[in-house]
């Protein structure tokens, strides 16, 4: 198995699942998708993907429809996607994806978290190169073979295809998202969820005390309403 498999297996997905803000974050994704490509999922592939993710997160259909309607209102605030970079204690690189309607607020908040937790906020490009920007799709495994699918989807950009308890996962470079989404839809293969992740090229092993230092910063950042995802180069123990 490759790095995407190891990343998915080792990452503490419980953080995302435990966040009460999941629906709020999906709501932001809906606003950005509608502002970018309109409210019709048939003609807006980004919105189609967000709706699939909302369904996977058990977000009520009424909530989704309301969010689409609200996003179509020109008075609704737009969110700008901003990437923050820096270092946690013990040389761990941190990459933070945010969606904000107030850049000054977000910058000030992120800087304060680094300062309070003995981290260092970096400049643009200071750690981004340490991560591979990938896209992923989860599809049902019934009637499909992961190995055959991998061979078939290499031509569309797929780099890793593997099975877990919840289905088959396809990983590819970030810019292959649209191509793979279109091919899955052409084949009438259900997309259960999709998204983007940044996989660290190299990870660093820390002791328990050092891990606690890094976790303190990560948890502080993740509590921020503007933060969508946090990635780092700390080796994570399987749980």
UniProtKB/TrEMBL annotation:
It is found in: Cytoplasm. One of its GO terms (cellular component) is cytosol. InterPro entries: Integrase-like_N, TACO1_YebC-like_2nd/3rd_dom, TACO1_YebC_N, Transcrip_reg_TACO1-like, Transcrip_reg_TACO1-like_dom3, YebC-like. Residues 79-234 form the TACO1/YebC-like second and third domain. It holds the Pfam family TACO1_YebC_N. Keywords: Cytoplasm, DNA-binding, Transcription, Transcription regulation. One of its GO terms (biological process) is regulation of DNA-templated transcription. Residues 4-73 form the TACO1/YebC-like N-terminal domain. Signal peptide: none annotated. The keyword Transmembrane helix does not apply. It comes from the Bacteria. GO terms for molecular function: DNA binding. Belongs to the TACO1 family. This is Probable transcriptional regulatory protein FBGL_11830. It comes from Flavobacterium glycines.
């Amino acid at each position: 198995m490759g790095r995407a498999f190891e990343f998915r297996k080792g990452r503490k997905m419980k953080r995302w699942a435990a966040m009460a803000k999941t629906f709020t974050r999906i709501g932001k994704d809906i606003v950005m998708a509608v502002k970018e490509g309109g409210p019709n999922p048939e003609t807006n592939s980004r919105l189609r993907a967000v709706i699939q993710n909302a369904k996977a997160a058990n977000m009520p259909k009424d909530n989704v429809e309301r969010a689409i309607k609200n996003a179509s209102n020109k008075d609704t605030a737009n969110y700008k996607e901003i990437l923050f970079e820096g270092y946690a204690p013990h040389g761990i690189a941190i990459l933070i994806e945010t969606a904000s309607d107030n850049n000054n607020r977000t910058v000030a908040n992120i800087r304060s978290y680094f300062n309070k937790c003995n981290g260092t906020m970096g400049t643009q490009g200071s750690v981004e190169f340490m991560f591979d920007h990938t896209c992923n799709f989860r599809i049902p495994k019934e009637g499909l073979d992961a190995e055959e699918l991998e061979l078939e989807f290499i031509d569309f950009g797929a780099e890793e295809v593997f099975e877990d308890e919840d289905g088959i996962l396809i990983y590819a470079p970030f810019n292959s998202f649209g191509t793979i989404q279109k091919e899955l839809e052409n084949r009438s293969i259900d997309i259960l969820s999709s998204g983007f992740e940044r996989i660290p090229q190299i990870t660093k092993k820390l002791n328990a005390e050092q891990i606690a230092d890094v976790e303190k910063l990560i948890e502080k950042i993740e509590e921020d309403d503007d933060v969508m995802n946090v990635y780092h180069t700390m080796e994570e123990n399987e749980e």
